[in-house]
Design brief:
Domain Peptidase M1 membrane alanine aminopeptidase: 230-444
Cofactor: Zn(2+)
Enzyme class: hydrolase
Strand order of the largest sheet: 6-5-9-3-2-12-15-14
Distance between the termini: 15 Å
Bound molecules: arginine, zinc ion
CATH architecture of the domain at 1-198: Sandwich
CATH topology of the domain at 1-198: Immunoglobulin-like
EC number: 3.4.11.2
Domain Peptidase M1 alanyl aminopeptidase Ig-like fold: 449-542
CATH superfamily of the domain at 1-198: tricorn interacting facor f3 domain
Number of strands: 32
Structural class: alpha+beta
């Protein structure tokens, strides 16, 4: 086997404070497509007795090095390594100037400084700054940056941007135009950014709680200004919300957001200069769905909230990533919830945890929210670090309550502002504010895996007493017991809420032992016990409740998540039974009746009804099996879909008709009510389109597809037709492409909807679409839309003949050197091969070892394949 020099792992336990600090950085960029010159002057101070300064640098062409005005001599004074620059025997304090060149046009990995679609743009998190200049590229080195950008042709680049405040502009003797920026807040290199391009500019202002005026600027592709208004509103809402809920205001006089088409991730919180994937900025009703708008608001909020949780207080090392990401996702989720759809949001967040995070935690790349070992940092921007990290912060919030949690936040900020902190610093502030000992709680930071709780109830009529025994077990044998907050509801058989004296006011039981007993008295009859209200902990619950109890919960629980979850249990039971017996799937009549009642009840929230009707995905069901029966899952989900379509046909039509006026109401285009109505119309049509012979359905599919003012409705109809292989699908696909071929973000939906058809034809279709003009291998959004979507089309990816694997692997090979971050994201669904049958195991092992033998295998892929095959 020819493994290229194996990348080395780094361990959390090896943390060592830097031997040098860099107090100021003065950067000059002479921008050029293929040869940008960077002149970087740093004021450096020694912190210990280390003689040599070792700087990080990758893919740089070094021109010269000057130390305190002395031009250094190669080999004698310094050495250039493949990924470093070592300067020998430096003094205690000195000025160091490094001059190097880079090639932004050749940078297809979109990390460091790159040029795409006519725009210079940078992405430095996690370790991209070292692709711009030599530096101590680690988050605990905080410096004050001054940045000057030079261009030959200022008509081509009217906007030259960097962090902080614009302090000066001018023209050099050679005729170069320049702009200088200064950021007064010391920051790590990963928060540095530069952008140069020609944009349309949307401006507004915001007045902080203290009365300071902040200039807000959105830079978008020419002609897209009208699609930036919503994001601007979302920014102002975020700024107001952070003041009101967290007492945190913005700290610079200017806040800029740039939308770019080529971006590996969602967005980046660079100080004062956020860079966004354009799909999280640009939105108008004709081209973006309600979900797109909601995502824009969430990501705008997320990046803004980073200004305190991430920028003012940053991470000591990358193992602490969840310190900023988990906390910021929690803040983003609370912001979205406070905008008005708390229950809907919560349920959607739980779905992400269960289908994606539980899966990651059960696979070869399982890691704690504060990992111990990392090969390629870009592999750790995961659903575990982000979403489970947010769940852990949420558990603290549940245990402490809003007031004490906010006191903990104030303490955390007071103690750590301007510093690079650790997860323990955060926990310590929470301990000090609450007076609680969080030692056991800390295990959530160090132990991977998903605990499973089991609940047993025993009611004594004579003593009027309920005894509840809750135990916890872990899928990782070495784990010690977790501290698990379990919010509960007790209901009478008639569904009234009960609050026995032993139940804490906040209804949160604290499970800390492997097994614990809780007793509740004064109960006239056996109550229904519903654990994990609001999904109070990221755990699995081994459910043994009876059908009657589940039905009571679906009807009467106060907490919307519990009601939704009980219905999910019923779907899941039906699916598991059908798989176990290999027979036809049957649904309990009580469930069908309940769904009928919700569909036709004008008083229930249509958004929640839509969620009740959302059945588990194939991927979600697969996550519940240790050994995955691929085709049985596929069959059961198909039957469940059809059973609901048939069983609820009349009520689905009725509900669609009932909500259609609200869904298309112009005045309330983006109101909660209109969004909810559209959610339900789409859900109904998603089932109805399975009734391919119905004229009534045909007519509504056409009517909804023609609702041109709303992409939510148009795309909802298209998706219903395509996913159900309705005879309208081909015509609608053609019309849609014709109407939207000029708009790549809309065409991404067109690609994705075809890649997610649950039918064997999808493989050939995806192949074919890689040749379509709407597709582009060099743009991550296009690759995600077509290939990442396909990679979650579970039964098709896992086709028994390996055709799905072959399709994905050829894409990964193609992207290995061009864009390893994107390649690595595509690889994840192939890693958990041990959970499939022998034939698939063989195929998967084969493709993984093929990949490993590739020349120039990217570290991103190397790390995952190694973990998977070990
Ligand atoms: N800090 C960014 C965010 O969550 C994520 C950027 C990570 N980028 C990367 N290439 N690893 O808002
Ligand atoms: Zn973030």
């Amino acid at each position: 086997m020819t493994v290229t020099t194996a990348p080395t792992a780094r361990y959390r336990k090896d943390y060592k404070a830097p031997s040098f600090s860099i107090d100021t950085v003065d950067l000059h960029f002479y921008l050029d497509d293929t040869c940008t010159r960077v002149v970087n002057t740093m004021q450096v101070q020694k912190r210990d007795d280390e003689p040599d300064l070792v700087l990080d640098g990758e893919q740089l062409q070094l021109v010269q090095v000057t130390l305190d005005d002395r031009l250094l001599v190669a080999e004698q004074d310094y050495k250039v390594g493949r990924k470093s620059l070592t300067i020998y025997n430096v003094p205690a304090q000195f000025s160091l100037t490094i001059e190097n060149t880079i090639n932004p046009s050749a940078n297809t990995a979109l990390e460091g400084l790159y040029k795409s679609a006519g725009v210079f743009c940078s992405q430095c998190e996690a370790e991209g700054f070292r692709r711009i200049t030599y530096f101590l590229d680690r988050p605990d080195v905080l410096s004050v940056y001054t940045t000057t950008l030079y261009v030959a042709n200022k008509e081509e680049y009217p906007h030259l941007l960097s962090n902080g405040n614009k302090v000066d502009t001018g023209t050099t003797a050679e005729g170069l135009s320049w702009v200088r920026w200064h950021d007064p807040y010391p920051k790590p290199s990963y928060l540095f950014a530069v952008v140069a391009g020609d944009f349309d500019l949307l401006e507004d202002t915001y007045t902080t709680a203290e009365g300071r005026q902040v200039l807000l600027q959105f830079f978008v592709d020419k002609g897209n200004l009208n699609k930036a208004y919503f994001a601007m509103e979302a920014l102002k809402n975020s700024m107001r919300w952070d003041e009101q809920r967290f007492g945190l205001s913005y700290d610079l006089d200017i806040y800029m957001v740039v939308a770019v088409d080529f971006f590996n991730m969602g967005a980046m919180e660079n100080k004062g200069l956020n860079v966004f994937n354009s799909k999280f900025v640009l939105a108008d009703e004709a081209s973006a769905t309600d979900q797109d708008f909601i995502n824009v608001e969430a990501v705008i909020g997320h990046e803004y909230f980073h200004n305190w949780t991430g920028n003012r207080i940053t991470c000591r090392d990358w193992f602490q990533l969840s310190l900023k990401e988990g906390l910021t996702v929690f803040r983003e989720q609370e912001f979205s919830a406070d905008q008005g759809m708390r229950a809907v949001n919560r349920i959607q967040d739980v779905r992400i945890m269960r289908t994606h995070q539980f899966e990651e935690d059960a696979g070869p790349m399982a890691h704690a929210i504060r990992p111990d070992i990392v090969v390629e940092m870009n592999n750790f921007y995961t659903v575990t670090i982000y979403n489970k990290g947010a769940e852990v912060v949420r558990m603290l919030h549940t245990l402490l309550g809003e007031q004490t949690f906010q006191a903990g936040m104030r303490r955390y900020i007071a103690d750590n502002d301007g510093k690079a902190a650790t997860c323990n610093d955060f926990l310590q502030a929470m301990e000090q504010a609450s007076g609680r000992n969080l030692n056991q709680f800390k295990r959530w930071y160090s132990q991977a895996g998903t605990p499973e709780i089991s609940v047993q109830t025993d009611y004594s009529r004579r003593q009027r007493k309920l005894t509840v025994t809750i135990s916890q077990a872990s899928d990782k044998p070495a784990n010690a017991p977790f501290h698990i907050p379990i919010q509960v509801e007790l209901l009478s058989q008639q569904g009234e809420p009960l609050h026995p004296p032993e139940l804490p006011v906040n209804s949160v039981l604290e499970l800390t032992e492997p097994e614990q007993t809780f007793t509740f008295t004064g109960l006239k009859e056996a109550p229904v016990f519903a654990p994990l209200a609001n999904f109070s902990a990221p755990v699995k619950c081994n459910d043994t409740r009876s059908l009657d109890e589940l039905i009571t919960i679906t009807r009467f629980a106060q907490d919307a998540f519990l009601r939704w979850d009980a219905v999910q249990q019923l779907y899941s039971q039906a699916v598991h039974e059908a798989i176990a017996q290999g027979g036809a799937l049957t649904l309990p009549n009580a469930l069908i009746d309940g769904l009928k009642a919700s569909l036709t009840d004008g008083n229930s929230d249509p958004a929640l009804v839509a969620l009740l009707l959302q059945i588990p995905s194939e991927e979600g069901v697969a996550a519940e099996f240790k050994y995955v029966p691929v085709s049985a899952i596929h069959r059961a989900i198909t039957e469940l879909h059809e059973a609901l379509a048939r069983g609820l046909y009349t009520e689905l039509l009725q509900a669609w008709d009932m909500h259609w006026p609200q869904a298309t109401d112009k005045q309330a285009a983006f109101s909660k009510e209109a969004i909810a109505a559209r959610m339900l119309c789409n859900t109904c049509l998603g089932y109805l389109a399975a009734m391919t012979d119905s004229e009534a359905v045909h007519e509504r599919l056409q009517r909804q597809f023609a609702a041109e003012q709303s992409m939510t409705l148009v795309f909802g109809a298209l998706q219903a037709a395509v996913h159900n292989q309705h005879r309208l699908a081909e015509v609608q696909l053609a019309q849609f492409a014709n109407r939207w071929q000029h708009d790549p973000l809309v065409m991404d939906k067109w690609l994705a909807v075809q890649a997610t058809v649950r039918h064997a034809s999808s493989i050939a279709k995806v192949h074919e679409l890689t040749e379509h003009s709407a597709f582009d291998w060099s743009n991550p959004n296009r690759v995600y839309a077509l290939l990442a979507s396909f990679s979650h089309n579970f039964a098709q990816l896992h086709q028994a003949d390996g055709a799905g694997y072959a399709l994905l692997v050829s894409a990964i090979k193609r992207l290995n050197t061009a864009n390893p971050q994107v390649a690595s994201r595509l690889l994840s669904p192939l890693l958990n091969w041990r959970r499939f049958n022998d034939a698939r195991q063989g195929l998967l092992q084969q493709v993984l070892s093929d990949l490993r033998n590739m020349p120039d295998l990217a570290p991103d892929l190397f790390e995952k394949i190694e973990q998977s095959l070990r």
